[in-house]
């Protein structure tokens, strides 16, 4: 039997972080002469507050960046069903990288630049391999690879507790994976934390079969091979004609590490918010205040001086 859960109200986004470092204010000092040609930022836990909103200060900093000729690109794990919320966050302009890089949209032209799916049989094989080392997991699936499909409910197994404001169909385990390809599969454990679950999943998942990551929401994500925020950001950079060496990137969670690493290796600049995961704090070349202290805005303001 299928149970249907309606969308939550738009202001009922999941509380993201709000923990250690979220309200920390850091003294940035002199950031040197380097200036970006493009800003790429994660949304939840980085650009947005714990309530999932854009503060007035952050909105003003984003507008000032655009006015200076520096586009702001949102790079998020949110899927196509949440495109409207991403569009609102970004002011309806530029490029939005969704689904950890698997779904990229030009917001100005309302044009999908990239959509990549994982075939059902491969997704099932990866899930089976992971469950062999973790025990049984609870599943949800993002299968909306077109704008039309994004109007249909998310496919969620009973017991998953999906956190975002979008309609979801609660399904028995054997009906969660659709017949066609999926953008990503979400896996939640009742006994393992997200870092431990991710480590076990990566130990049995060949990158040629799938990418595995987590965004700090209590579950891990299985993605098509090669789909990361780095590869999604590359699509946006091509659209704008900007090299990774000219990018300023902000992030907070392990799913941000690929784009942080790519920008670092190219000679750009990466910045972790104060509430970031330890792995992100270690990888980023710079640091700013927490997401509830307008950390991204404060950094952009310092550069704009």
UniProtKB/TrEMBL annotation:
A Pfam family hit: Hydrolase_3
Superkingdom, taxonomy of origin: Bacteria
SUPFAM superfamilies: HAD-like
Gene Ontology cellular-component annotations: cytosol
GO MF term set: magnesium ion binding; phosphatase activity
Transmembrane segments: none
Entries under PROSITE patterns matching the protein: COF_1 (PS01228)
NCBIfam families: HAD-SF-IIB
Protein name, entry field: HAD-superfamily hydrolase, subfamily IIB
């Amino acid at each position: 039997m299928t149970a249907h859960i309606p969308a939550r109200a738009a202001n009922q986004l999941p509380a993201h972080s709000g923990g250690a470092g979220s309200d920390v204010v850091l003294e940035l000092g002199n950031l040197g002469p380097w200036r970006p040609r493009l800003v790429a930022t994660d949304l939840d836990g980085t650009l947005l507050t714990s309530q999932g909103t854009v503060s007035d200060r952050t909105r003003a900093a984003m507008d000032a960046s655009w006015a200076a000729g520096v586009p702001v690109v949102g790079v998020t794990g949110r899927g196509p069903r949440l495109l409207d919320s991403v569009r609102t966050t970004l002011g309806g302009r530029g490029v939005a990288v969704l689904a950890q890089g698997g779904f990229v949209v030009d917001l100005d032209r309302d044009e999908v630049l990239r959509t990549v799916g994982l075939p059902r049989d491969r997704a099932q094989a990866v899930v089976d391999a992971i469950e062999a080392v973790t025990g049984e997991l609870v599943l949800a699936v993002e299968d909306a690879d077109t704008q039309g499909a994004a109007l249909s409910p998310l496919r969620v197994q009973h017991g998953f507790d999906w956190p975002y404001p979008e309609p979801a169909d609660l399904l028995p385990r054997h009906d969660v994976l659709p017949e066609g390809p999926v953008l990503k599969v979400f896996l939640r454990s009742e006994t393992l934390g997200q870092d431990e679950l991710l480590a076990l999943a990566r130990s049995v998942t060949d990158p040629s079969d799938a990418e595995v990551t987590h965004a700090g929401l209590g579950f891990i994500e299985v993605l098509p091979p090669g789909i990361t925020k780095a590869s999604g950001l590359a699509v946006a950079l091509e659209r704008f004609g900007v090299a990774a060496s000219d990018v300023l990137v902000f992030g907070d969670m392990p799913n941000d590490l690929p784009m942080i690493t790519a920008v670092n290796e190219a000679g750009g600049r990466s910045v972790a918010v104060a509430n970031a995961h330890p792995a992100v704090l270690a990888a980023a070349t710079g640091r700013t205040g927490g997401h509830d202290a307008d950390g991204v805005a404060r950094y952009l303001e310092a550069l704009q001086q």
